[in-house]
Specification:
heterodimer, A: Arc Repressor Mutant, subunit A, elongated, B: 196 residues
């Protein structure tokens, strides 16, 4: 019996929450994701950067300082990675 | 580092939470455009009955003149708060932009070509009714769906108000504004406020 490896980028609770949210949305800003995930600003920033580096989300920043606005959007690669991750998880149950 | 959590549960819960949060600014914009539409079309009706002058039929222009700055203020306030947008709410927004353009452009074109009293007003009722129905479907809010259906039905009925009866198309629009925009808008705002 062979189990598929789980994507280490997605196999993190906070990053998975972010991806699941963005998969259902057209876009979401930093404030919304912070409220949704109950994460600290610092932790959320770090995880968003990791997802962005992996090419799973696109982060657009506008303005500076207090008026700055960060908007996140899932990429096609991110959608595919999330689908693959879910398929891998489900394969655990089907064995 | 190994993570211990129920990944499928996390995905399902997050999606459920996002679905519950999908309460677009429509809760505030519906009553705004509803009141303006009802007010200006009733004013148009009253002034036309009273004075019978052509300019009375252009009072509807006051709707975007007053509404657009007020909407900008509401959207600006909304922008300062947490923001997200579902694909469905984006589609709904696109539809309302189309409605606004169709009503504005149609108002001028039909006005100049003398079709104002035959096509424009019933078309407004129909487009607003369909818009409320689509929005209600997107946010799964029955009063808005029902209001939209009633509004669209009034719109179809308004096509029958021709000849001497055409002036009654104006209160028909005000009625559509009440049933499809104002009432569902306040009910939706109340639902969102209670976090149901």
């Amino acid at each position: 019996m062979e189990f598929k490896d789980l994507n280490p980028i997605l196999h993190n609770e906070l990053r998975l929450k972010i991806m699941a949210a963005l998969d259902s949305l057209d876009d979401a800003d930093f404030v919304y994701l912070k409220g949704l995930t109950n994460a600290t600003s610092g932790n959320l920033s770090v995880q968003l950067s990791k997802l962005e580096e992996a090419g799973y989300i696109k982060v657009s920043r506008s303005g500076e300082g207090r008026g700055s606005h960060t908007v996140c959007r899932i990429t096609p690669a991110g959608i595919q990675a999330l689908r693959d991750y879910q398929r891998a998880l489900l394969s655990y149950f089907s064995h | 580092m190994e993570e211990n959590f129920d990944a499928l549960e996390v995905i399902a819960q997050t999606r459920g939470k996002v679905y519950m949060d999908d309460a677009p600014t429509g809760g505030k914009l519906f009553p705004l455009w509803g009141w303006l539409t009802a007010f200006f079309y009733l004013a148009e009706f009253i002034f036309w009955q009273w004075l019978r002058q052509e300019w009375c039929l252009w009072l509807w222009v006051g709707i975007p003149v007053v509404g657009l700055p007020l909407m900008a203020v509401i959207l600006r306030k909304d922008h300062e708060q947490a923001h997200m947008r579902t694909r469905k709410s984006k589609l709904v927004l696109d539809y309302w932009i189309f409605v606004a353009c169709a009503i504005g452009l149609g108002g001028f074109l039909f006005g100049f070509f003398g079709l104002y009293e035959t096509v424009e007003n019933p078309m407004i009722c129909l487009l607003v009714g369909i818009g409320a129905f689509i929005t209600g479907e997107a946010v799964r809010f029955r009063p808005m769906i029902a209001g939209g259906l009633i509004g669209a039905t009034i719109g179809l009925g308004a096509f029958l108000l021709q000849g001497d009866l055409w002036v009654w198309q104006m209160p028909a629009i005000a009625l559509v504004a009440v049933v499809a925009l104002i009432v569902p808008g306040y009910l939706f705002e109340r639902r969102s406020g209670h976090g149901v």
